[in-house]
Amino acid sequence: MRRFGIISTSLWRSRRFRALSTDLARLTYIYLHTSPHGNSVGAYVIPPELAALDMRRGPDDVRDAIRELAECRLIRHDPDEELIQIINFFRFNSPGSRKQLAGPLSIVRESLPMSPVKDTTACDLVIAMHARAMTWDKTVEARGAFLHDAASLVQDLHLNELIVSPEIGLGIDLQIALSEDLLIDLPIQRHYQRHYQQTDTQTDTDTQTQTQTQTERGSGGEVPPSAPPSPPAMGSRSGRKPPEDVRHMIAEIAAKSTGPR
For 1-93, which CATH class? Predict the structure, then answer.
């Protein structure tokens, strides 16, 4: 039997928690954190009838509360297996040593029923193990053990696809860090390709738009840029043709200069 559970005081500022429609939904969420049937991974089988008995509420009302908690993304729930996982459980309950890690690893590997909720719990444990390992110096023995056990969990439970999926919601930087630090192959390449394709497409679009704007200037309200003058002819100030009257004067002066002296 679990002897205690940790709940952060920030719960009362949580928008998801405050958005719950009933006091029973809020009570059920607190119950799931402090239930004597809970464990060190925040994921366990709990029939609604048993939770209702502990809270002295009707089973149907508790089922509705659990359904709302799942819809608000405070928990993940597999009703067929009656398996519940508290989302972000490891934020305040992360294993801090190899001794503390033994229990969560055993629960995820052996105690939880086969379920998508089991897999998401395993992914969250891997992420928590990696985060804890990164707080230790490379000379700390537990660091290598945590990373090794995290990599083994990904490979043994075939979590490579799930851990980089939108369901887990990791940023691309953390996906890369997991792949490099755990020495495992995660399918993040397509995220790169999608990112670069979007970037290249946007660049091509911007270039095309800029070229089109320069070409179409003058058809709207903008004045087209004037063409630069031709290089000045030898001995003159500009390559532009002088006005007609100036050309006439130049011709007269030329005629006089070539006549008899």
Answer: mainly alpha
Phi, psi (degrees; rounded to nearest 5) at 72: -85, 5
Q: Which tokens belong to 233?
A: 């002819």
Tokens of 150: 């995290």
H helices present in the chain, as ranges: 15-18, 23-34, 48-55, 59-71, 90-93, 98-106, 116-133, 141-156, 160-163, 172-182, 189-216, 244-258
175: left (phi > 0), else alpha (psi -120 to 50), else beta?
alpha
Q: Please state the domain extents for the chain.
A: 1-93, 94-190
H or E element that contains 78: strand 75-78
Asked whether residue 247 carries a pLDDT value surpassing 60, the answer given is: no
Phi, psi of 75 (to 5 degrees): -140, 165
Helix axes 116-133, 98-106, angle to 10 degrees: 170
In the block, tokens 């709302």 appear at 68
Pairwise CA distance, residues 21 & 12, whole Å: 14
What pLDDT is stored for residue 147 in this prediction? 97
What are all long-range contacts of 193-196, with beta carbons under 8 Å and residues at least 24 apart?
Answer: none
pLDDT tens column, 16-25 = 999 999 999 9
What residues have CB less than 8 Å from 32, skipping those under 6 apart? 38, 46, 51, 69, 75, 84, 86
Write out pLDDT tens, residues 174-201. 999 999 999 999 998 655 555 555 555 5
pLDDT 10s digits, 163-175: 999 999 999 999 9
Task: Answer yes or no: is pLDDT of 243 > 70.
Answer: no
